[in-house]
C-alpha cells in the first residue's frame, strides 16, 4: 500500500517475480487510511505492517507466521523494536 509516495516503489515491486505481491498507490491520506485500505484489499491469511522507515530482521516474518500458526486463538501479535542510527548502529532496544 503506497500512500502517495514519490519514490519508485512500483518499479521496485514490479521487479519481483512473485505474483503474491500486489502494489496499490493512492493519494496521500495518512497512515491509518493507507492501512485500512490495504487491509480491505488484502487476500492473505495474515496482515503485517512495514512502514517506509522500518526494517525487519531477515527471519522476522517467518518467526511471526510460525508463532501465529502455533497459536491460532491469537488475533494480534506484536514485538519489540530496536532504534538504529543512519549508519545502522543500534542505539536503543525496546522489548
From TrEMBL:
It comes from the Bacteria. CDD domains: Glyco_tranf_GTA_type. SUPFAM superfamilies: Nucleotide-diphospho-sugar transferases (SSF53448). This is Glycosyltransferase family 2 protein. Residues 1-90 form the Glycosyltransferase 2-like domain.
